[in-house]
Amino acid sequence: MSTGVVTAARVTHRCGTVDQLAAASPESQATAVTELLTVPDIEEAYVLSTCNRVEAYVVGPDHVVGRAALSEFFAGIEDDAVVTTDHNESLRHLLRVAAGLESVIIGEDQIIGQVRTAYEDARDAGGIGSMLEAAVTKAIHVGERARTETAINEGVVSLGSAATRRAAREIDLEGAVALVVGAGEMGQLAARSLAAAGVDELVVANRTVSRATPLVSDVDDETDTTVVSLEELSRVATRADVVVAATGSDEPVVEPHHLDGQAGPKVIVDLGQPRDVAPETDTLPDVRVFDLDDLESITAETHEQRADAADEVETMIDHEFELLVEQYKRARADEAIAAMYESAERIKEREVETALSRLDGDEVSTEQREIVEAMADSLVNQLLAPPTKSLREAAAEDDWSTIHTALQLFDPEFGGNDGPIAPPSMPATVNSDTSVSATDDD
């Protein structure tokens, strides 16, 4: 178990704008983890990047190192858009993210898959050690419990369905022509939601037609579906009554020239991060463009509907957070206990061999050797039982000086001059629940 602490920083839909989120987004999660691991003294790293959040978690010897690494990671982002948290608050926030309590749509389902994918990316990049292994797997467990044991994900469960509801407030979707730009997870969710809303025709435009083809087979059989390439965007966009864009492209995909000659009112919902729809598109006659910020009214309704379930999930998180803290404590105590037993084992083996050499050397029988070794094992176990119990009690009571002393005494590799180790649940030198740069609006 690492003797470091977790520090985290984030830019999310709660504290940053769409453009700030775009600026904070890394090339990839794995690349971002690799970048953080190049910082001296950063032992572990985990990065979660979605359309609504960019979050980075690091493990270092203290929060000074962690904050410095994260400040560099988010360099160029306005200070008031970045929320930085120390150990306990970082861990609790990660559990809330996986449970869906921090999402635009409270309780939405895809975030838990995104947390899991980010874990796999970080692990492949060498960023997952004992501290983050425990934290992220606990978060995934909490997210799964929240969705199976509460009603947190009933009703509107994704930005795709929120986009459909936003469009339905502007035009009648029954019998409409819908265009979804992008065949990723968000595009799939939007396509299913639009088909369920009764659109007469659904067109999916994607850079790779073959990748989009399976998507249309997964929607309502009564909906007329077509897949086209992005090169045909102008032709299909002019016919569509509603457009949902969700490509993940670095540059806008839908631009004013795609709508030249368009007939009748048109609603466009931009789910892209960065933007998929060029801002000037909103100036065209009879065209209304909505982005992620415009979905707040939909998400507010969902939040109200799920308030009771959210309370249940909060209680669940409190319990699971305490279990995580206890897990860290036990691991830290076990580290000292293991060092103690390893030291005792080295002494026992040496003394057993010395004793046997004095008992006629090679004439000692196998039975006699086993008796001596059993006696030595028994002595070690009996002598170490009380300190083992004391070390576990010390961890439970946050008595880290006792753990530190035990490691100094029994672990030859332990850096005795580094000062007291910080407890994994409550770093000694820094207030564990402080936030800098911005205040989250939970």
From TrEMBL:
Positions of the Tetrapyrrole biosynthesis glutamyl-tRNA reductase dimerisation domain: 312-411
Keyword Oxidoreductase annotated: yes
Sorted UniProt keywords: NADP, Oxidoreductase, Porphyrin biosynthesis
InterPro entries for the chain: 4pyrrol_synth_GluRdtase, 4pyrrol_synth_GluRdtase_dimer, 4pyrrol_synth_GluRdtase_N, GluRdtase_CS, GluRdtase_dimer_dom_sf, GluRdtase_N_sf, NAD(P)-bd_dom_sf, Shikm_DH/Glu-tRNA_Rdtase
UniProt-annotated catalytic positions: 51
Record-marked site positions (Important for activity): 93
Pathway(s) it belongs to: Porphyrin-containing compound metabolism; protoporphyrin-IX biosynthesis; 5-aminolevulinate from L-glutamyl-tRNA(Glu): step 1/2
EC number assigned by the record: 1.2.1.70
GO molecular function term, any single one: glutamyl-tRNA reductase activity
Residues annotated as binding NADP(+): 182-187
More about this protein: During catalysis, the active site Cys acts as a nucleophile attacking the alpha-carbonyl group of tRNA-bound glutamate with the formation of a thioester intermediate between enzyme and glutamate, and the concomitant release of tRNA(Glu). The thioester intermediate is finally reduced by direct hydride transfer from NADPH, to form the product GSA.
NCBIfam families on file: hemA (TIGR01035)
Designated name of the protein: Glutamyl-tRNA reductase
Lineage summary: Archaea, Methanobacteriati, Methanobacteriota, Stenosarchaea group, Halobacteria
